[in-house]
Specification:
This protein has 722 residues and is an alpha+beta fold. Helix content is 16%, strand content 34%.
C-alpha cells in the first residue's frame, strides 16, 4: 500500500506542470555558465548554504553567506555573523599577509580556529585573537596534496614520487624511484574499490601509509595531444582484461624517524590491496586483500612498525565476485570492535566484529542495501546509517539502530533521498535531501529525528518554465523482478496523438537512474527533449545499483543480455500505450549507457530507429582489468560471454541511424573501441555517423558541452521526430 501511495503521489505532483504556464528551456541556458541554477543541490552548495560545517568538538555549525562567516547553534535563536570579509582582510594584513578577494574555503581545526589556503601558504586563523599564522606552504609543482589535520604536515606527489612537507621545511623525499613505471602515493586499481586516494595519514599524524604500484608490465596506450604542432603522443598505462596488471605494495613512512617500512602482503602479485585503514592507536593497518578473480577476500591485520602480517581476521568468498568499498569502522570507546560492510547475505549490510576476527553479530538485516555509515551517538549505543528503503527502493533514508534492543528507527522525517552529516558530539545531524516535491532542503535534527531547525529551503528552479508531466512506475522482468521506470511526457500532451520516444539508458553497476529525488533524477536535457515533443523514458534494469547483489550480479559473465531483456520489457510497455508511436523509438546513453545504446539498436534492430551512443565500450576485452574482469572474468575464461557482448559481431544488423560520439583523449573507454567499430562498418559497407570531440576525455565538458547536446538533440529531431 505504501508503494502504491508513493507512485500515486509521484503522478499527481507534476500534473500541473503539463499545462502551458511559462517559458521553455533552451540548450544554451542549461549548458551555460549558470546552468547550475537548474539543479537545486548545486544552488544550495554555491549560493544557498555554502560551506556548511560543524565545528570540531561542539554542536555549533558555520557557513559562508555574502562573503561572511555565519554561526548557529542547536538552540533556539537566529544565526549570527561572526566574521565579515573586511574584518578578515584587515586582520590578515595585520598578520603580514595580503587581502583576499572573497571568503576562502575553510576547515575547522578547533572551535575557535580554522585553516585555509592563501596562495601557496597554508594558514590558520584564530577567531579569538583575530590573527593568522602560516603553518605550512605548498611547492609550485605539488600534486595530490593531503593535509594532516593535527600537525598540518602535507603529503604530496611530484611525478611518480611521494614527499612530506613539515612546518615550512624542505620537503622530505619519502620515495626516490627513477623508474617512472613505479608510482608512489597515488590512486591505484583505476579508482575501483573506492580507492580515490593513495596516501593515508595515521590518526595522530605520526605515520603515513601509501600505495606503491609497479606498472612496468602494464601495456602503454597512446593518447594524442593535437594542441601541439606537430601532435604529440602521451602514453598512459591501461591494463586490458586478461592482460598484465599493476603490482601493488604498501609502505609506511615514520615521520619522526624519516624511515619507511613495507608491509609484507605476500609474494603473489595478482591481487588487489583495498580499503587501507589505520587502527585508532596507530599500531596496526588493516587491508582487504582481494584476489584477481575478485571472489576471495581476506581482511588482514599488519604491524605498522615491522610490516609483519599479524593475522587474517576473516575471509569472504563468492561464486561471482566481491567488491569491498569500505574498510573497518572502529568504535571510539571500544576500539577493539569495528563495523564491516558485506554483501555476503545478498544485500549490503553492517556486521560487528572484534579485532580478533570474532563475529559478534550481523547488525542490519533485510532486503535492502545499507549505503553509508553516518556515525555513533555519544554513548555508542546507537549506530546511524543511510539505507535504501526496503518497501520503496527509490528512497534513501537515515536510520538508527539500537545495539542492545536491535530496534531500527527511520530518523529522516521526509520522503526523498537523504544525506546526513553527524555533529562531533554525535547528538545532532544535518539532513540534506530532495524529493519529488522538494527541490532541496537542509534540516538540523537531533538523533531521534526531531527537527530542531530548518536551515535551508531551495526554490523550484523550474517555477517559471513549462515542463512535461513526470511519472514513475514499475514493471516485471521475465524472472518477476520489479523494474522501476521514469517517464516524461511532452508539454501540451494530447493522449489522442502519437509521440516519438527517446529511451535514456545507463544500465550498468554503480548507478541508479530513478530515485525519489528532484525530478526523479532526470536531467534538464531530458526535460528539454520532452518540450521538443518526445516522450523520454528511462528504466533501471538488472545490473544497476542499490537493489541487492542478485539484482546487480545478473549480468555476471554475460554483459549485454539481461540488461537488454529488461529494456525490452520497458519497450513492450511503451508499445502498449496508445499515445506511443512504436515506429519512432530511439535510445541514447553514455559510457556503459553508450554500450547499451549501441547494443540495443544492433541487437534489436526492428525496434530502435535511432541511437546515439556516447563513449561506448564496443569490445569488453579492450576494457580495463579491474572493472571488466569483475563482471566478465577474463577473455580466456569466458570466451563465449565476450563474444556475445562484442558489438563488432553485430554490425551487419544495423538498420536504423546510429551516431557514435567520443572524446579523443578518453582514458576510460579508449578511442580504439569506436575506431575499430567504424573500421568494421567501413569494411562491411554499413553506414554509421561518427563524431569526435578533440581533447576531451570520457566526458565532454566546458563550452563544447553545448555543441554535444545540440548535436544529439538535432540527431533525434532529424531522424526520429520528422
Amino acid at each position: 500500500m505504501r508503494k502504491i501511495a508513493f507512485l500515486f503521489l509521484f503522478t499527481l505532483i507534476f500534473i500541473t506542470g503539463t499545462f502551458p504556464q511559462g517559458k521553455l528551456l533552451t540548450l544554451e541556458e542549461i549548458n551555460g555558465r549558470n546552468a547550475y541554477r537548474f539543479y537545486p543541490e548545486y544552488v544550495r552548495i554555491i549560493e544557498g548554504l555554502p560551506q556548511l560545517l560543524w565545528k570540531t568538538t561542539s554542536d555549533v555549525y558555520t557557513y559562508v553567506k555574502n562573503d561572511a562567516l555565519w554561526e548557529g547553534t542547536t538552540k533556539a535563536g537566529s544565526d549570527k555573523q561572526v566574521l565579515d570579509l573586511p574584518t578578515f582582510n584587515k586582520n590578515l594584513v595585520k598578520s603580514g599577509f595580503t587581502e583576499l578577494k572573497s571568503f576562502p574555503e575553510i576547515s575547522w581545526v578547533s572551535d575557535v580556529s580554522f585553516r585555509f589556503e592563501h596562495g601557496n601558504a597554508l594558514l590558520v586563523y584564530d577567531m579569538k585573537k583575530g590573527s593568522a599564522a602560516k603553518v605550512n606552504s605548498y611547492p609550485d609543482d605539488m600534486e595530490n596534496a593531503d593535509i594532516e589535520p593535527n600537525t598540518f604536515a602535507i603529503a604530496f606527489t611530484r611525478e611518480n614520487n611521494l614527499y612530506v612537507l613539515l612546518n615550512n621545511q624542505e620537503p622530505l623525499a619519502v620515495t626516490t624511484d627513477a623508474d617512472k613505471n613505479i608510482v608512489n602515493g597515488q590512486t591505484v586499481s583505476r579508482h575501483e574499490f573506492n580507492t580515490e586516494n593513495g596516501k593515508f595519514w595515521s590518526p595522530k599524524g605520526n605515520f603515513l601509509a601509501f600505495y606503491r604500484k609497479d606498472e612496468s608490465q602494464v601495456t602503454d596506450y597512446p593518447i594524442t595531444d593535437i594542441s601541439k604542432v606537430p601532435a604529440v603522443t602521451k602514453n598512459i598505462k591501461y591494463p586490458m582484461a586478461g592482460g598484465k596488471s599493476e603490482i601493488l605494495s604498501v609502505g609506511v613512512f615514520d615521520v619522526k624517524n624519516n624511515k619507511t617500512i613495507w608491509l609484507k602482503t605476500g609474494e603473489k602479485n595478482d591481487k588487489y590491496l583495498t580499503n587501507i585503514t589505520w587502527s585508532p592507536d596507530e599500531k596496526y593497518i588493516y587491508i582487504a586483500v582481494l584476489n584477481r578473480d575478485q571472489n576471495h577476500l581476506m581482511l588482514n591485520q599488519y604491524d605498522a612498525i615491522t610490516g609483519e602480517l599479524v593475522k587474517t581476521l576473516f575471509e569472504e568468498k563468492n561464486q561471482k565476485y566481491i567488491e569491498p568499498e569500505s574498510g573497518p569502522i572502529f568504535f571510539r570507546k571500544k576500539t577493539n570492535e569495528f563495523l564491516w560492510f558485506s554483501e555476503r547475505n545478498g544485500y549490503r549490510h553492517l556486521f560487528r566484529y572484534t579485532t580478533d576476527g570474532e563475529l559478534i553479530e550481523q547488525l542490519t538485516d533485510g532486503k535492502f542495501d545499507v549505503l553509508e555509515f553516518v556515525g555513533f551517538d555519544p554513548t555508542e549505543q546507537f549506530v546511524l546509517y543511510k539505507a535504501v528503503d526496503e518497501d520503496f527502493p527509490l528512497q534513501q533514508s537515515i536510520y538508527s539502530i539500537n545495539l542492545q534492543t536491535k530496534e531500527v528507527v527511520k530518523i529522516s522525517t521526509a520522503d526523498g533521498v537523504h544525506e546526513a552529516t553527524l555533529s562531533p558530539t554525535g547528538k545532532f545531524f544535518f539532513d540534506s535531501y530532495s524529493s519529488a516535491k522538494v527541490p532541496s532542503e537542509v534540516l538540523l535534527c537531533d538523533i531521534t529525528g526531531l527537527v530542531v531547525k530548518k536551515l535551508y529551503t531551495g526554490e523550484n528552479p523550474l517555477k517559471d518554465y513549462t515542463v512535461g508531466e513526470i511519472t514513475t512506475g514499475s514493471l516485471q522482468a521475465e524472472d518477476k523482478t520489479e523494474l522501476y521506470y521514469r517517464m516524461i511526457k511532452p508539454v501540451n500532451f494530447d493522449p489522442a496523438k502519437k509521440y516519438p520516444v527517446v529511451v535514456y539508458v545507463y544500465g550498468g553497476p554503480h548507478a541508479q537512474m530513478i530515485t525519489n529525488s528532484w525530478n526523479y533524477g532526470a536531467s534538464m536535457w531530458m526535460l528539454y527533449m520532452a518540450q521538443q515533443g518526445f516522450i523520454v523514458f528511462t528504466l533501471d534494469n538488472r545490473g544497476s545499483a542499490n537493489r541487492g547483489l542478485k539484482f546487480e550480479q545478473a549480468i555476471f559473465r554475460n554483459i549485454g543480455t539481461v540488461e537488454i531483456q529488461d529494456q525490452m520489457t520497458g519497450i513492450k510497455y511503451l508499445k502498449d500505450l496508445p499515445y506511443v508511436d512504436a515506429d519512432r523509438i530511439g535510445v541514447h546513453g553514455w559510457s556503459y549507457g553508450g554500450y547499451m545504446a549501441a547494443a540495443l539498436i544492433l541487437k534489436q534492430p526492428e525496434t530502435f530507429k535511432v541511437s546515439v551512443a556516447g563513449a561506448p565500450v564496443i569490445d569488453w576485452s579492450m576494457y580495463e582489468v579491474m572493472y571488466g574482469e569483475r563482471y566478465m572474468d577474463t577473455p580466456a575464461d569466458n570466451p563465449e560471454g565476450y563474444k556475445n557482448a562484442n558489438l563488432l559481431n553485430f554490425i551487419n544488423n544495423l538498420k536504423g541511424k546510429l551516431l557514435i560520439v567520443h572524446g579523443t583523449s578518453d582514458d576510460t573507454v579508449v578511442l580504439q573501441h569506436t575506431l575499430r567499430f567504424v573500421q568494421e562498418c567501413n569494411h562491411n559497407n554499413v553506414q554509421v555517423d561518427y563524431y569526435l570531440y578533440p581533447g576531451h576525455s570520457h566526458a565532454v565538458r566546458g563550452k563544447d558541452r553545448l555543441h554535444l547536446d545540440t548535436k544529439i538533440t538535432n540527431y533525434f529531431i532529424d531522424n526520429l521526430k520528422k
